[in-house]
Structure formats: structure tokens, C-alpha cells
Amino acid sequence: MKLIILNDYDQVGEWAAKYIRNKILRFNPGPDRFFILGLPTGGTPLGCYKKLIEFYKKGEISFKYVKTFNMDEYVGIPRDHPESYHSFMWNNLFKHIDIKSENTHILDGNAANLVEECDSFEEEIKAAGGIDLFVGGIGPDGHIAFNEPGSSLLSRTRVKTLAQDTILANARFFDGDLSKVPTMALTVGVATVMDAREVMILITGVHKAFALYKAIEEGVNHMWTVSAFQQHPQTVFVCDEDATLELRVKTVKYFQVQGAEQHTRPGRKGRWRSCATFNLSVSILHSAHSLPNK
Amino acid sequence: WKMPTNKSVSKAPITQFVNCRILRDHKLQREDLWVREGRILDPEKLFFDEEGYADQRVDCEGLIIAPGFIDVQINGGYGIDFSQATSNVRGGVALVAKKILEHGVTSFLPTLVTSPPNIYHKVLSEVKVHSGGVEGAGVLGKEAVRKDVDTSSYVRLVLISGHDIQYCIPYNCCHLEGPFISLEKKGAHPEQYLRSFQSGGMLDLIETYGTLDNVAMVTLAPELPNSEKVVRELAQRGITVSLGHSVANLSQAEEAVQNGASFITHLFNAMLPFHHRDPGIVGLLTSDQVPQDRTVFYGMIADGIHTNSAALRIAHRAHPTGLVLVTDAITAMGLPPGRHTLGQQVIEIQGLHAYVAGTKTLSGSIATMDMCVRHFKQASGCSVEQALEAASLHPAQLLGITRCKGTLDYGADADLVLLDDAINVRATYIAGQEVWRK
């Protein structure tokens, strides 16, 4: 895995947005070849979404031939509830870009048969040809999507009861009234995300630091489900300084140097700091593939 | 031929207003506005339910989109006097309706001043409720009395041209200011046609007006004997009762409100002045006798002439949510200076003032609605949102028609006014169609 360490939340959002943009451009999607993107919700990816909208408005990217699959959705709250993940995606991304509704997929928490809904979601991913890039976040308890501690690392899309901690954390979005907070959600499984060809996990903030430590410095463990990605062939973790606070200095230095080396071309001189790795990787991408005409 | 659409619920084209700031939830927000079939559309529903998108985009170039203005007191304009029984009453209303689009007014109540019964009989039978369109602003009716209206109760007429869908609401439409008003406070109304409730109340009304079918609002003086029954009966029928041209004291006014009155006609004008031991009708703004679930609204002619700015501010600060901007515009609005007819009297224009000819009694205003909104904002120091709501949301709340007018909520009629930051009208839309552009 790669661990990209940036200074702050904004840099993480920008880096991640550029990474997604460049991946899509490099893929060069068209009417017969869609780029399949997996997407999260929550505070962490907001900065990234804002940047993607900026890139779209500047004409640098189009979502016309992009399909999206969201990770999760609450069970039992109306689709147009301000806290539903449908509302989140509409307000924070879809309404600002040129994506077609039929190309977006979000689990329906009000489906008559929830199990069938989950199964057909898996089928839709398969029918689309699998996910090219799955973007995700991490919970303070190390969960990916709603795969709370104890979730099987081989799980697929299913109905999950939310952990008490998650319900408490969510109460602030429901007027502090615990009775209003949904107790169940539909979520992609750990294995569903592992099936993606590439995975990018965003982690920002000191409250995620311990989870990041457990995810990359300790072993693969179902109590910290993000740790499963140690076994994924193509994963990048993007975090800010605060999120590294529970890591060993050794780990941080290792990834900083490794990141610099991986992106240094033979013969180049000079030292590279971690935030420069992104700039270089972009320039490598640019030189390797000319950007399509606008 | 219209482009085939992509939606599953309706084939009608969808317009998306972009690059604009819309007035929603009492704030100007940077959001797009979506319109389909003359109504404001919920784009999130469109996206997820119908997998639809816009057929047409209108670039508003940063302008403000507000709900179209609603004028609940307008006596005429451009040479037309609603209180005259001409041979072409409908044509007259239609002319004014078209002209006031330039002021951002998309709905109005044609107002009749005190007149003899034959005038009421003639005019009321001719002026039908009609919704707006390219021909002009809509003459307002009231939604079903005491019930929620669903769209199936609207009669739909598709014009031969095939483009416009007009909704005819077969209910009320006019504002009758008088003749059951006080002699001492008649203002510019002709004395000989004033009346009282001598036959007990409703009988007098039916005798005078002929019909209550096309009536949305009645202004009366509550101190007149037998008025309580009238107020109650009118309110029950869903007709807004307004207090005005009256010498009522505060308790008489409060009783009228408790019986169902909900509006004050041009606050301060044609009523007893505020007195600290008996505030009169003005005291309703802060009265504690107003039932909890009800709001007393009050009309203000914010033309800088009818009310001193300091008085305007006092009223606004005392009761900001009840302020309704009205023009009380008369025949001469839009016309050059000189002499013109209003009701049964002659008035004279001098600059921005209109007097009863030969006197210094104000006869009504010639300010336009957008001028009133600008003046109100400047004089009161209120926000743009508050100024716009005083001309749109509040009159709609007064008439109980907020489900389709006065807001930009999903499902409301797409009657819009596009304004710049100085509140100058740049374009007006009715049912999503552009009906005037600067």
C-alpha cells in the first residue's frame, strides 16, 4: 500500500480529487466504457467533492461516462430526509455535475425486501464490470462503510445493525434525539470493496489516528475492518498530519521516503517531500498520456 | 413541436434557472430553480425518481429570483379605473394586469372603492378570476374555503395555441374597499355612497354588492353597528376581512379580529392616530388579544408620501412579519401629470402626489410595487429578503394561498420576478413563462 501524508484536510481533499480526476482522464471513458467509481459519504470526502465540482466547472473533467456506487444508506428514513445519503450525494455532488441519474447507484433503505436490494446491488456492480476505484473513509472504530467491528472480512452487501457508538455519533444530525437516529443501514461488505481494482481511503483528523494505527501497523483483524486492505494489491491511504499521530515515527518516515522514491525518475536530483509526490505523479501521468481536448 | 423529454412522470419540458440566487426559507441562496408545467419542481425527486434532467437552461447572470409580487390593493392604473362600469371591464383589468408585469406583480386583487350598487353589480359580474400568463398578471382568487385544494379541483383549460395551460380557479377575486366605512374617515371615498348595516348585516352586503362570488377581501369599519355578524360570516366564507377607513378604538378592533378580521387597510391612513391610552387600530400590531394561531397583517403604502418613514419603521419594528406592501395605486399610476377620474370623483396628479381635485386630501398612490419595495427597504433598513417577502410571502399568507403563491417552494406556481441587487425588475415570469423582460 501507499500512504500519502499531507499537511491538512484541504490538501487531502485536493489530492484525492486530483487523483480521481486523473484516473478518469487516463481511463478515457466513453459510451461503451464507463469508469466505475465507488463513493463514500460523511465529513471526510466533502473537501474532495468540492474540488471535483471545481474541476468539472472548469471543464477539466466530465462525469458523463462515469458510474457511481455508494457504500451505504440508512434503513427506514425517507429518501428526501436531509440526513439520508441520497440527499448528501445530491446536495454535495450530483446536483453540481453532469452525471446522469441512471448511472448513480445508491442502496435503497426503503426497499420492500432489504436482502434482495443488497443482492441486486452486488449484481449491478458485477454487471457494470466491477469497480475501478473505490473511495472510502474510516470510522474512529476502524470501520469501512458500515462494516462495524466484528464484521466478517469476507462480507458482502447486506443489512447491518449500527453499533451504539455510531448511533451516538450520528445523533447530532438528528437534533440530538436518539430515538430519531436510524439503527440499521445497508452497506457494502468488506469483500465488496476488496473486489475493486483500486482502493483509496481518506483519513483526516486526530480522532481517526488510532484507527489508522490499527489499520496499518497491526495485523489484519475483524475488529478494525479497514485492516483488510493490507491484503489488497492496489490501495492508497491519504491522510493529514493529525491522522498520523498514533503511528510510529518510523512508519511515517518509511512511507514518506518510499513515496518519494517511487515517484522519482532515474537521474533526477533533489529531495522530495511527501506533498511533492503528488505533483510529480501528476506530471508523470500528464507526460505519459496527453490530456483529451476540452 | 417540442423536444421529446427524458422523464417518466411527465413529458413536459423542464427549465432550469442557473447562475441565480433564489429566495427560499427567508434567505437568498445560491441554488438553481427548476420549473415544469408552470410549477416549481423538486430537482432531487426528478433526479432519483424520474432520472430526469433539464431540457432548457436559463442563465440568470447572477440575478435574484423572488416569488412574483402580490398587490392586494390596487384601484386601477394606466387610465383604467376598476370602480368604473365601462363597457369593457374585463379589457380594463387585462390592460392593468399586463402593465404591472413590468413592476414584478404577478398576482393582484382589483380593488373597488366606495361605489353605488349598480357599479358593484356590473363590475363584479364581469371580473372573473383568471390566472396569469403572457396576457398579464393573474387576478387572484382564494383557495377552497376551509379545505385543502388538490389539483384535481382546478379546472384546466388548454388554449388553442397549445402552449399555455391556464388554471381557472372558480372562486373569488376582488378587494371591496367600502362602502361600509366611517364617514369621518372616508378619505377620498364619495360620501353619498357610504352605507351602514341597517338591515342587519349580510343583507346589506348582498344588496350592495349583488354577489360575494368574486370577492376575496372586504374593507369595513368595525365600529359600525351589526358589524360583528358580518365579520364572522365573511371570515367563515373565506373572505378576508380588513379594518380600515374607521374610527374604531382598540377594543372594537380586537373584537373584530377575534371575529375573524385579519388585515388592516393602509395602516395609519384613514384611521384614528396612535394614542398611548387608546392605540386604536394601530394597536393591533402588538395587541395581546389576537388569537395565538393567527397573525394580523397590515397594508403599508411605502411610497414615501402616505406614511412618514419613521412611522413605517415603528410599524415594521413592532410587527415585521405582518407587514404587507400595497400600492393602493389609482387610475393615474403610469399616466402623465393632470386630472383623472377615480370612482365617482376627480383627482389631480402633482409629481408623485395624487390629491382629490381642489383639496390636499391624498387620493391614493401612483407608486409602482417595485418602487414600494425599494423604498421600504431603504426607509426601514431591512434586508433584501424581508423587503421581498413583504411584497410576496406576506400577502400570500394573508390570503391563505401560500401553497401556490408567494413562495418558491416545490409545487408552488412558478410566478417569478428576476431582480438585480438594487431591486430593479429585470424580468417577470408567470407559470414559468417569461412574460416581460427589461
Automatic annotation (TrEMBL), chain A:
Source organism per UniProt: Oncorhynchus mykiss (Rainbow trout)
Cross-referenced CDD domains: GlcN6P_deaminase
Predominant location category: cytoplasm
Enzyme Commission code(s) on record: 3.5.99.6
Domain Glucosamine/galactosamine-6-phosphate isomerase: 12-234
EC class (word): hydrolase
GO biological process, one term: N-acetylglucosamine catabolic process
Family: Belongs to the glucosamine/galactosamine-6-phosphate isomerase family.
Alphabetized UniProt keyword annotations: Carbohydrate metabolism, Cytoplasm, Hydrolase, Phosphoprotein
Function: Catalyzes the reversible conversion of alpha-D-glucosamine 6-phosphate (GlcN-6P) into beta-D-fructose 6-phosphate (Fru-6P) and ammonium ion, a regulatory reaction step in de novo uridine diphosphate-N-acetyl-alpha-D-glucosamine (UDP-GlcNAc) biosynthesis via hexosamine pathway. Deamination is coupled to aldo-keto isomerization mediating the metabolic flux from UDP-GlcNAc toward Fru-6P. At high ammonium level can drive amination and isomerization of Fru-6P toward hexosamines and UDP-GlcNAc synthesis.
Subunit structure, as described in the record: Homohexamer.
Cellular localization per UniProt: Cytoplasm
Reaction equation(s) it catalyzes: alpha-D-glucosamine 6-phosphate + H2O = beta-D-fructose 6-phosphate + NH4(+)
Protein name in the entry: Glucosamine-6-phosphate isomerase
Classification via SUPFAM superfamilies: NagB/RpiA/CoA transferase-like
GO cellular component entries: cytoplasm
Alphabetized InterPro entries for the sequence: Glc/Gal-6P_isomerase, Glucosamine6P_isomerase, Glucosamine6P_isomerase_CS, NagB/RpiA_transferase-like
GO MF assignments: glucosamine-6-phosphate deaminase activity; identical protein binding
Keyword Zinc appears in the UniProt entry: no
Automatic annotation (TrEMBL), chain B:
Coiled coil region boundaries: none
UniProt keyword Transmembrane present: no
Taxonomic classification: Eukaryota, Metazoa, Chordata, Craniata, Vertebrata
Highest taxon of the lineage: Eukaryota
Binding annotation for Zn(2+): 177, 245, 266
Gene Ontology MF, one: N-acetylglucosamine-6-phosphate deacetylase activity
Enzyme class, UniProt record, top EC level: hydrolase
Biological source species: Oncorhynchus mykiss
Stated name of the protein: N-acetylglucosamine-6-phosphate deacetylase
Matching InterPro entries: Amidohydro-rel, GlcNAc_6-P_deAcase, Metal-dep_hydrolase_composite, Metal_Hydrolase
Every Amidohydrolase-related domain range: 64-435
Catalysed reaction, written as an equation: N-acetyl-D-glucosamine 6-phosphate + H2O = D-glucosamine 6-phosphate + acetate
UniProt pathway: Amino-sugar metabolism; N-acetylneuraminate degradation
Residues engaged in binding substrate: 188, 269-270, 277, 306, 362-364
Cofactor list: a divalent metal cation
Pfam family, one: Amidohydro_1
Entry-linked SUPFAM superfamilies: Composite domain of metallo-dependent hydrolases (SSF51338), Metallo-dependent hydrolases (SSF51556)
The record's free-text note on cofactor binding: Binds 1 divalent metal cation per subunit.
Residues the record marks as active site: 328
Keyword set, alphabetical order: Carbohydrate metabolism, Hydrolase, Metal-binding
GO biological process, one term: N-acetylneuraminate catabolic process
Enzyme Commission (EC) number: 3.5.1.25
Family: Belongs to the metallo-dependent hydrolases superfamily. NagA family.
